[in-house]
């Protein structure tokens, strides 16, 4: 896979402690679903980053918390078997 292919899922890799994202409740492992109401489904990684960087009037991220993400829970359960 190259970075220019559409991706189905983008996960938060790292959250700086005491930074704005951390204070807003974002956690490592959370799955990004929307940026300012725009779905990330079918977008390339650079397109998603551009949506975030080009946010002029604030940034609203819709996320699926890691602990509530059925896809991740199913994956980790199958890995442990």
UniProtKB/TrEMBL annotation:
<feature type="domain" description="PDZ">
    <location>
        <begin position="1"/>
        <end position="67"/>
    </location>
</feature>
<protein>
    <submittedName>
        <fullName>Rho GTPase-activating protein 21a</fullName>
    </submittedName>
</protein>
<dbReference type="Pfam" id="PF17820">
    <property type="entry name" value="PDZ_6"/>
</dbReference>
<dbReference type="InterPro" id="IPR001478">
    <property type="entry name" value="PDZ"/>
</dbReference>
<dbReference type="InterPro" id="IPR041489">
    <property type="entry name" value="PDZ_6"/>
</dbReference>
